[in-house]
Amino acid sequence: MSRKATFAAGCFWGIEETFRQLSGVKSTAVGYMGGDLDDPTYEDVCNDTTGHAEVVQLEYDPETISYPDLLNTFWSCHDPTQLNRQGPDVGTQYRSVVFYHDEEQRIMAEKSKTRLIKSGKYSKEIVTKIILASTFYEAEEYHQKYLQKNGTGSCQL
């Protein structure tokens, strides 16, 4: 039985590649979530007016990889102290969000964020939001597995 997880951590190409390589992740798709426009396009989202974040949504096997392990990957693959940006990418579409799909995921995400804050790893405030997942709009086909298709293994981050 597979489960669903959704994360926003900057440009969706890089986070998809990061999660795609994990054992237990059965599939990934990049897209948009958290906005107020039905069926947005990449151009709509890039205008920074729809409220959507670039996300990766994945199906995973909880027998092989746990949700806390996915959260650890999420926290380590971006800077959760950067508000509405990651590296050179700036705009609300690049914000840091854990979109939870059920109460169990919400609790685990809150606990992992609290642990990270208490760890003292970051001197700045962690700005990551933990929000109930809403409609996932899959991005255009050319964005899917973009780094894999284009022969590069990572973004500039």
Structural write-up:
By secondary structure, this protein is α+β, with helices and mostly antiparallel strands. Helix content is 29%, strand content 25%. The chain has one domain: Peptide Methionine Sulfoxide Reductase, Chain A, CATH 3.30.1060. It has helices spanning 12-20, 42-46, 67-76, 103-119, 146-149, and strands at residues 3-9, 25-33, 53-60, 85-86, 89-90, 96-100, 129-132, 137-138. The mean pLDDT is 93.
Question: Distance between termini?
Answer: 33 Å
The arrangement of helices and strands along the chain is: EHEHEHEEEHEEH
Radius of gyration: 15 Å
DSSP helix count? 5
Helix content: 25-40%
**What's the CATH first level?**
Alpha Beta
Any idea what the CATH superfamily is called?
Answer: Peptide methionine sulphoxide reductase MsrA
Q: Write down the domain tally.
A: 1
> Segments where pLDDT lies below 50 for 5+ residues?
none
Name the average pLDDT. Answer: 93
Proper CATH architecture: 2-Layer Sandwich
Q: How much of the polypeptide forms β-strand, as a percent range?
A: 15-25%
Number of strands: 8
Q: What structural class do the secondary elements suggest?
A: alpha+beta
